[in-house]
Design brief:
This protein is about 50% helix and about 0% strand. It is mainly alpha-helical and about 140 residues long.
């Protein structure tokens, strides 16, 4: 018989995996931590990505606002959401995320420094974000 504590630990550890395969994905628990760990260094005020596009991932509101060019998320439609195109590397190489920074310009050096905390998202993280968008991109 499995104890209550063992079940709680298993749920904490497997919660994101369960969410990625049919449960409700939480912005606060599943998506936001991924964005903060990998994207906020560039996509927050004074970051290279923010300076170039106006896109911030600091809050749900700024994420949903999108870039100075328009929204990046279409709630309920990950296939037409620019965010997924960029994270899946289906866009132009110059704007796919995370950014590969090359060159010797001041902007390239700033980009490279900020991108040190970024990495390509795992398949699991991409699925979580995709499912969250498909579920309506709710602030939950």
């Amino acid at each position: 018989m499995i104890g209550t504590r063992a079940l709680a630990v298993a749920w904490i550890m497997l919660g994101p995996v369960v969410a990625a395969y049919g449960g409700e994905v939480s912005f606060q628990k599943d998506v936001y931590p991924v964005l903060q760990a990998n994207c906020v260094a560039c996509h927050a005020p004074h970051g290279v990505g923010y300076e170039r596009s106006g896109f911030s991932v600091q809050t749900y509101e700024t994420l949903m606002k999108g870039t100075k060019y328009g929204a990046v998320i279409t709630p309920g439609a990950s296939d037409s959401s620019n965010l997924m195109w960029l994270l899946d590397h289906r866009g132009h190489a110059s704007i796919n995320m995370p950014k590969v920074c090359e060159g010797t310009s001041q902007e390239s050096r700033k980009c490279a420094q900020a991108s040190q905390s970024a990495r390509w998202l795992s398949q699991h993280e991409l699925i979580l974000i995709k499912e969250w968008v498909d579920q309506g991109a709710k602030d939950n």
